[in-house]
Structure to design on (227 residues):
């Protein structure tokens, strides 16, 4: 269903460490997935995407892993920096439908 | 800068009033999406248009309506406003709608405060 939730899960990591943010998606027919970063008071910003015919995709300092068996998506951020502090959302889409469904979001806090 | 433009950035209005939020999609994008985000909440999908036609509807109240014009810009109309309508309203756009592999890009949002 649609994303809801008053209290976002929070992940606190030390600067320089790697971060792993997880997302469980809802529809086994979903074939396209996106990760977004949202800083306070700003719009969600595209980070990386992956299609269902792939298990892994790498970008600059970020890697997305897709496990279709358990409907799980993860975002790995290497060498986490203070500027990475934000809320991260995953989104899923199914070909043939118009709607993108967003996860609840995870707040990432980077500790100096 | 995503290329999606939203106006106004901030809006304060009284209960019972009506407001219109405007969105210009990225150049070439035919699909426009509207989302609502309340404090510390996720993105609630409201409605989506493709090339002027409504294609998908989410949790949009009857007091709210939207349209997409021939020039592809979109407006979200919120009427009989209540305190609970205070939120960030985001517009997003993508090239097409049905096909997967089309990223949607968000604007910076319109902050609506109902007092």
């Amino acid at each position: 269903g649609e994303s809801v939730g008053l209290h976002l899960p929070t992940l606190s990591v030390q600067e320089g460490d790697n971060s792993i943010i997880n997302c469980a998606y809802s529809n086994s027919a979903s074939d396209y997935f996106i990760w977004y970063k949202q800083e306070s008071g700003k719009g969600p910003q595209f980070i990386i995407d992956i299609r269902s015919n792939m298990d892994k995709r790498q970008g600059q300092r970020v890697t997305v892993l897709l496990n279709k068996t358990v409907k799980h998506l993860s975002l790995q951020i290497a060498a986490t920096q203070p500027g990475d502090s934000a809320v991260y959302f995953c989104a899923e889409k199914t070909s043939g439908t118009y709607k993108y469904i967003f996860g609840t979001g995870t707040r990432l806090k980077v500790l100096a | 800068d995503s290329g999606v433009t939203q106006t106004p950035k901030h809006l304060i209005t009284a209960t019972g009033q009506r407001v219109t939020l405007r969105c210009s999609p990225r150049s070439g994008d035919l699909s426009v999406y509207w989302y609502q985000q309340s404090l510390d909440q996720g993105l609630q999908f409201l409605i989506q248009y493709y090339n002027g036609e409504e294609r998908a509807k989410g949790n949009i109240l009857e007091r709210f309506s939207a349209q997409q014009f021939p020039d592809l810009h979109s407006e979200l109309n919120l009427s009989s406003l209540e305190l609970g309508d205070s939120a960030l309203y985001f517009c997003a756009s993508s090239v097409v709608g049905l096909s997967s592999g089309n990223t949607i890009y968000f604007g910076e949002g319109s902050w609506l405060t109902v007092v």
Observations:
- Residues 1-6 of chain A have pLDDT under 50 and may be disordered.
